[in-house]
């Protein structure tokens, strides 16, 4: 088993085995717990979807995302570099959403320690906003808005390109320094430098990798 799989398995086990009653931690208690794990300079401290979330520095001065389960006391700390390496990346999140039956995937982004996605089960289906756990990809919040009642969907059989495939396609097309790659509005978006040496913003077809729009990055 790889280190990444061991890390995810351990976190999943912690979620499954936690049997203590709801903590309902107060803000001072949650902050104290984070500090007790050796983190300082806590910022963006908030409670949402049953978790206390924050950003803080480790003893080594490395910035981490902190996640404290208000019901179980489970504590997680990870860096931005862990996403897509030790932890699931955006491609795995998209695959998970497809497995859940969502055929229309509009926005997927990592925000405040959680994955956030806006999806539909079909073109005329209700808009659904999801929040997923960063390790297990468990859906921890789901809110539906408008549209027809959700019906079991048949996900688009054409797979969405992974982040790595998109980067490779852009590099093959002559772009370099590809960064800030995000999946939004049903497409991949990225910043890069084109063959003329100009910094540009790109919209990329999620299925073919073709450039749908290129504009100068101000």
Topology at a glance:
Layout: H1 3-17, H2 27-36, E1 40-48, E2 51-57, E3 63-69, E4 75-78, H3 90-99, E5 104-111, E6 114-120, E7 127-132, E8 139-145, H4 163-172, E9 176-184, E10 187-193, E11 199-204, E12 211-216
Antiparallel strand pairs: 1-2, 2-3, 3-4, 5-6, 6-7, 7-8, 9-10, 10-11, 11-12
Domain PepSY: 91-142, 161-212
Keywords: Signal
Protein name: PepSY domain-containing protein
Q: What would you say this structure looks like, in words?
A:
This protein is an alpha+beta fold. It folds into three domains: 3-82, no CATH class; 90-145, Nuclear Transport Factor 2, Chain: A (Roll); 163-216, Nuclear Transport Factor 2, Chain: A. The chain is 21% helix and 38% strand. A hairpin with a 6-residue loop joins strand 7 (127-132) and strand 8 (139-145).
Quaternary organisation: single chain
Report the average pLDDT across residues: 83
Query: Which value, in Å, is the CA radius of gyration?
Result: 19 Å
Say how many strands there are. 12
Sequence of strands across the biggest β-sheet: 1-2-3-4
Strand-residue proportion: 35-45%
Shape: globular
Uncertain spans, ≥5 residues at pLDDT below 50?
13-22, 147-157
The number of domains is 3
Strand-pairing-aware structural class: alpha+beta
Helix content: 10-25%
Q: Main beta sheet, described?
A: 4 strands, antiparallel
The helix tally amounts to: 4
**SSE pattern:** HHEEEEHEEEEHEEEE
Span from first to last CA?
45 Å
Protein name: PepSY domain-containing protein
Signal peptide: 1-24
InterPro entries: PepSY
Pfam family, one: PepSY_2
């Amino acid at each position: 088993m790889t280190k990444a799989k061991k890390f995810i398995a351990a976190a999943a086990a912690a979620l499954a085995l936690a049997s203590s009653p709801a903590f309902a931690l107060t803000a001072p208690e949650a902050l104290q717990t984070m500090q007790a794990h050796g983190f300082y300079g806590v910022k963006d401290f908030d409670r949402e979807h049953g978790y206390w979330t924050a950003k803080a520095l480790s003893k080594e001065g490395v910035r981490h995302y902190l996640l404290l389960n208000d019901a179980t006391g489970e504590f997680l700390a990870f860096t931005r570099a862990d996403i897509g390496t030790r932890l699931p990346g955006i491609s795995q999140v998209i695959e998970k959403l497809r497995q859940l039956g969502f055929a229309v995937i509009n926005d997927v982004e990592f925000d405040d320690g959680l994955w956030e996605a806006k999806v539909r089960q079909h073109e005329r289906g209700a808009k659904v906003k999801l929040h997923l756990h960063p390790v297990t990809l468990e859906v921890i919040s789901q809110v539906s808005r408008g549209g027809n009642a959700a019906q079991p969907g048949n996900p688009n059989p054409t797979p969405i390109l992974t982040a790595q495939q998109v980067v490779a396609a852009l590099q093959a097309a002559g772009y370099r320094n590809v960064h800030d790659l995000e999946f939004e509005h049903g497409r991949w978006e990225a910043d890069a430098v084109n063959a003329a040496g100009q910094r540009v913003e790109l919209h990329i077809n999620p299925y073919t990798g073709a450039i749908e729009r290129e504009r100068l990055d101000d």
